Amino acid sequence: MSRIFLVAVLLAGSMLSTLGCATKKYVQSQVTPINNKIGELNDITSKNTRDITDVDGKAQQGIQAANQADQKALAAGDSADQANQKANHVSSGLNGLQGTVENLDNYKSAANTTIQFGFNKATLTKADEKLLDEFAQQVADQKHYIIQVQGYTDGVGSTEYNNQLSRRRADAVIQYLAAKHSVPPYRIYIIGLGKDNPVAENKNAAGRAKNRRVDVALLTNSLESTSAQATTPPPPSSARQ
Q1: CATH number of the domain that 211 lies in?
Q2: Is residue 137 part of a domain?
Q3: Model confidence over 17-66: pLDDT tens digits?
């Protein structure tokens, strides 16, 4: 009896062992494909995350590039506006200058004086200031006028230096007229001609002294004066008694 029971126990244990092995293999056969799928999904998710990050980075770069392009466009627009303003300003100035040049034929000389300068000098003496004071007295009563100031030098020295020196001499005259006699600068036309247009020979000291000069001329516009008088209404006549 005991021997039969032992055999039965051994058979039962063998069957359970066989059944357990079969169950493990079955579970493994079912789980392994699932794990593989999970691994594939993880790989796909990682790739999608990288792609999204890459696309986002490119999008940000595109936005920055667009912003920079907008800023450059705005800067270009501002530059264009400034250029247009400068062009308009220059055009207005040229129109005014053209009108002045075209009207120069109507100006006639009303007074003039000449200021002499020492060798390589561009400063006024007391005698020079007195001459300019007398000249300015003739300007005071004028309404339609310009003052022409031309600076000159003798023939000693380079052309470039003499041009600069003649301009400094003319500037000295203009500064005195503007500061002492309140002559508006816009009424003064200045030019430095260096050693051009000498009035005497540069071969001797006396001739060179005469050439070191500034010629100042008062020019009045007779047509404008006549026009102004014509447009001014006559004073009312007194009533007859």
Answers
A1: 3.30.1330.60
A2: yes
A3: 555 555 556 556 665 666 666 666 677 777 777 777 776 677 677 777 77
Q: Is 149 inside a domain boundary? A: yes
Number of structural domains, the chain?
Answer: 1
Report whether 139 contacts 181 (CB < 8 A). yes
Helix or strand (DSSP H, E) at 192: strand 188-192
Please report, as a single letter, which amino acid is at residue 159.
T
Q: Is 194 exposed, middle or buried (0-12, 13-18, 19+ CB in 10 A)?
A: buried
The answer to whether position 150 is within a domain reads yes
Q: Among 149, 147, 146, which Cα is nearest to 169's?
A: 149
Q: Which residue has the tokens 């595109």?
A: 62
User: Which residue type is seen at 209?
Assistant: A
Q: CA-CA distances (angstroms) from residue 163 to 39, 94, 120, 126, 194?
A: 91, 25, 12, 25, 4
CA atoms within 13 A on the CB side of 86: 6
Residue range of the domain that includes 197: 109-221
Q: Which residue stretches of the chain have pLDDT < 50?
A: 94, 97, 225-232, 237-241
- Could you tell me if residue 46 is inside a domain? no
| 65 CB-side CA count, 13 A | 6
